[in-house]
Amino acid sequence: MSPSHLLTTDWMARLERLALGSGRRVAGTLQGKRRSSRLGSSLEFADYRSYAPGDDIRRFDWGVYSRTGKPFVRQFMDEQELMVSLYVDCSASMDFGGSSPESDKGGGKGENKLLFAKRLAASIGYIALCSYERVGASCYSDRIQGRLPVLRGRGAAMRLFQFLQDMPPGAEGSLSTALREPGAVPRLSGMTWIFSDFWLGEAESSLGSVLSRLAGAGQEVVLVQVLSPEEIDPELSGDLRLIDSELNTGKEVAFTGRVLQRYREELVHYQNELRQMASERGISYVALSSGMTLQEAVFGAFAGAGLVRV
Asked: Is the pTM for the entire model greater than 0.85?
């Protein structure tokens, strides 16, 4: 894979033709590709600002440059950028299934959950950067493990890829605890994507509270639940000891067809609860398997939910 271990160049070329399907009318500060909440036509000049790498060269004002020798771009009233915030769950439970550059855990069907979540986040981030949106990224477990300053422009994509690629799996996961840290919640209104398995070591009410907080902060939230094929449809039998990867506690379980059926029913029930929790707050929820391809996830699930568009 080149230039990143996360995305191939062929896949990146396909992503460049897409845009995020945000339904939010934003009032940003810099020129972008989407309609803002401010009135005006696409030809209504607003102001100048200094040119930055990644800016649309079509907005470059050569007249000002010839007079002053300083690079400026034109801004228009109705074309403003969207702030896109990416949160990737790097807790221990995400480092499961398939193959992973961080560990040799798993070995089952599909791809390692954490690696798949990173590739999804990289794909969404790249779509946003190619559309002249601003992109910020954070990885969390029970705290914010790493935070990438806001990026803009296609040229910043490698910084995003490298950041995601370098983040190792952490310990116990808690989205509500992580987002209580100062500055963890986006300051500007925008679109927030959360990639996680949502195996919560906390009460579901805590998740509902943090989702309400994000929505109250002007965020259009997208929950992307990533589970491995083994978690969705386990093929286990006999007397086994299951180990909690985050708490390191164990439980003896005698697996029978009835036990597995009950597990599948509980999983469906839990996902329906997540879906309802999201729906009540105007939040999008998408459930994915790490056994899917990126094409199935982006052009299938995300496009089908109206989250990306051509």
From this structure: no
